[in-house]
Structures are given as structure tokens and as C-alpha cells.
């Protein structure tokens, strides 16, 4: 199984690193970071750079794609090379997936029409413009299209995919190996549980 994760300027690092860490444990699996050209791509904090070891042209037919989100997503919507690669790669995939605002790129590629999908809570309504039915869940599967909510939800999605690809025992072993047992120090991981005024503070971090 060959998994491709596209990088574009100002992606969110955890959207990439979380699913990468989980899926890299799958037996007989290769995970490749791709971009328009091979080389470094910097995240949305401007301080962390990842290296794309393949171009879109090098890997047109992966078995799985995981499209990250990030503060650069809206600019990336106008990147026809990226959107076209997603659209073409989907013809060959077992799963076409996204994390956070990466769902908007699936939408731009025409892959969300009539699908239930999720993304970061602040962007759920944006899915409607692509013909999707927004669902406020950590991970949503609609056929082979699988979308995850904001950032950390990519780990949940990846574990779900790993269970399907390699069995629940393998997925459980990986979850234990990476000690994924969330116990957040604050109960404000969603708008519903956040204290008054916190939604506005969070949105200010995203613009």
C-alpha cells in the first residue's frame, strides 16, 4: 500500500505528522510526502519544514491520499496542479482522505458532491458550497472518501483506516505504541464545551 500526503505552503504540521506516524506502522506500507516539486515545504507557523521526496508527477496513482489542512488551504484552493492531482489520484485510490481544512481541497476537486463530510468546526458550513452534507464528528466515511475534523482528529482517522487495512489488532498495537490515550488538561476541545469567549480567541489564532 502506497500512501501519499501532499504538502503545500502553510500546511498544518500535525495534520501530516499524526496520520503519517500511525500509517507508517502498517505492514507493507510506504508513506511518501509529495508536492508540486521535490524539496522543502514550510508549515503555517513558518518554522517547521518538511521535505517532499516526490512530485505529483512522480506519484500519480497512490493507494491512499491524506490531504492536510492549514492556514494556507484557501490559497491552495487556487493551486490547480494540487487540485488536479487530488482529482486524478482519486481515480486510483482505495481511500481518499483529508484532515481539517484539507476537506475543502477534496471539495475543490469535485469529490464531496452528495457526501457526508467533516472538517474543522470553524469551517463546517464551507463544505456546503461543494455539495457536501456537513457532519460534526471526529471522522466521517462516505464510501472511500474519509474526512477528519480539526488537526488532532487526523490521528483518530488514521487509526480507523489502519484497522481496516491491517486489522484491529495492529491498529490497537499502534495506538498503544504511540501512547494515544488523550486526557486533555482542559475541557474546551469543541465549541460546545468551551467557556464563554473562547471560540473568538480560537478563531483569532486561525486567521
UniProtKB/TrEMBL annotation:
GO biological process entries: regulation of DNA-templated transcription
InterPro entries: Class_I_gatase-like, DJ-1/PfpI, INH-QAR
Chain ranges of the DJ-1/PfpI domain: 2-163
Gene3D superfamilies: 3.40.50.880
Organism domain of life: Bacteria
The protein's name in its UniProt record: DJ-1/PfpI family protein
Organism of provenance: Nonomuraea zeae
Amino acid at each position: 500500500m502506497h500512501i501519499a500526503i501532499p504538502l503545500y505552503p502553510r500546511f498544518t504540521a500535525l495534520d501530516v505528522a499524526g496520520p503519517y506516524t500511525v500509517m507508517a506502522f502498517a505492514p507493507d506500507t510506504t508513506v511518501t510526502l509529495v508536492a508540486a516539486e521535490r524539496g522543502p515545504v514550510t508549515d503555517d507557523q513558518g518554522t517547521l519544514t518538511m521535505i517532499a521526496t516526490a512530485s505529483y508527477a512522480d506519484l500519480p496513482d497512490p493507494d491512499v491520499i491524506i490531504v492536510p489542512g492549514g492556514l494556507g488551504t484557501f490559497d491552495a484552493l487556487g493551486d490547480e496542479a494540487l487540485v488536479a492531482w487530488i482529482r486524478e489520484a482519486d481515480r486510483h485510490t482505495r481511500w481518499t482522505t483529508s484532515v481539517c481544512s484539507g476537506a475543502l481541497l477534496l471539495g475543490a476537486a469535485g469529490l464531496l458532491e452528495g457526501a457526508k463530510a467533516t472538517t474543522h468546526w470553524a469551517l463546517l458550513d464551507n463544505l456546503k458550497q461543494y455539495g457536501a452534507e456537513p457532519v460534526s464528528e471526529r471522522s466521517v466515511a462516505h464510501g472511500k472518501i474519509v474526512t477528519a475534523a480539526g488537526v488532532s482528529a487526523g490521528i483518530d482517522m488514521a487509526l480507523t483506516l489502519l484497522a481496516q487495512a491491517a486489522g484491529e489488532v495492529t491498529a490497537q498495537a499502534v495506538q498503544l505504541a504511540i501512547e494515544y490515550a488523550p486526557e486533555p488538561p482542559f475541557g474546551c476541545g469543541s465549541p460546545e464545551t468551551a467557556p464563554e469567549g473562547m471560540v473568538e480567541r480560537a478563531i483569532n489564532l486561525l486567521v
